[in-house]
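Q: What does the assembly look like in three dimensions?
Context provided by user:
Components: two
Sequences:
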Amino acid sequence: GEDVEQSLFLSVREGDSSVINCTYTDSSSTYLYWYKQEPGAGLQLLTYIFSNMDMKQDQRLTVLLNKKDKHLSLRIADTQTGDSAIYFCAEIRTTSGTYKYIFGTGTRLKVLA
Amino acid sequence: DSGVTQTPKHLITATGQRVTLRCSPRSGDLSVYWYQQSLDQGLQFLIQYYNGEERAKGNILERFSAQQFPDLHSELNLSSLELGDSALYFCASSAASGSGADTQYFGPGTRLTVL
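A: Here is the predicted structure of the complete assembly.
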């Protein structure tokens, strides 16, 4: 189908790790992205992974990609209250030579102090 | 601050009306993208312009149109507005034509309320 799917909510305690999951649809997607949206703000690119990689680490963020299952995850180590936000995964789809970003439904992360 | 500016921040209008949303991309960016974010539809890609030309089209209604001007700013025109058009409209910009890891930088959005 068309949809990029994510679970809607995740709640973790400060200092714990958070894992946000995403299932995408287009096996030919070359890049997959994670964006963060804080209340009242636009989307901020957190990280991206190229499709020939299994893992990418960037400070507290670890992205895992399972191409066979079309599954993408974002792990946030030592989660802080400032990490509370909505997290969107996105895939890039190619149709007739043009590129289109398809965003997931978003996961609302709540970090409890 | 992403460097992408959008005006106005808020817009309240009535059904049947027409509005124009404006976006200025980051300095040097050639691509502008428009997205609609609503509670029921999530974040939907509408359209992309690259250096003045339409580059990619998403779920944009026929009542909506956009353009990118020679100075690279873009306008999104929404006409015959319906209640369901109430949403947050985001503009994003990127340096190149949008392929691969061409990072998109998002503006703060325009909140449109149709009464």
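Follow-up: DSSP finds no helices and eleven strands in chain A.
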